Amino acid sequence: MAAAALCLMISLMVSFASSMEGNIKLEDLKKQLQTIEQIIEFGKANLESERRKIFEVMAGNTARAKCLKSIPDLPLPTVKHMVDYTEKTNAHVKRSFADMAAVVQDLESQLEDMKARLKYFEHNEL
Fold it and tell me: Which of 9, 46, 87, 120 could bond 39 through an S-S bridge, CB–CB 3.0 to 4.6 Å?
């Protein structure tokens, strides 16, 4: 679902950028910009939801690793392997979240650029 929103966002941004060069109505540009803003808000909400899930997974992974350490009959290599796996998984999850946050931040930056272009376009059209 997030991928579909991102694809729509990219197509709207391309459409917006190309329309700045052609003859398109100012109202159409404003509608496109509004749609892009809504997609970014959706992305932010989705990111927050994912953040909660990520930290729940990490807490569960850490709890499982602690439980494994406390089981006396498990061979030490198995425990070490599971703890290492948990640490690697948590690090991967943190990187994934950081990547998602960077995408949203980049989209917000591009949106601000589009708003500035639209203001310039409005000023020069009038």
Answer: 9
Cβ–Cβ under 8 Å, residues 20 and 117: yes
CB 68 within 8 A of CB 32: no
Token code pair at residue 85: 């796996």
31-48 as b/e: b if 16+ CB within 10 A: ebbeebeebbebbeebbe
- Could you tell me what percent of the chain has a pLDDT over 70? 78
Q: What is the pLDDT of residue 18?
A: 58
Phi and psi, residue 67, nearest 5°: -65, -40
Mean pLDDT, range 20-47, rounded to an integer: 76
The four Cα atoms 105, 106, 108, 113 give a dihedral, to 10 degrees, of: 150
The 10s digit of each residue's pLDDT in 77-114 is 777 777 788 788 888 878 887 887 888 788 888 888 88
Domain that holds residue 98: 2-125
Domains: count for the chain: 1
Q: What share of the chain is helix, strand, coil (3-state, %, to 5)?
A: 90, 0, 10
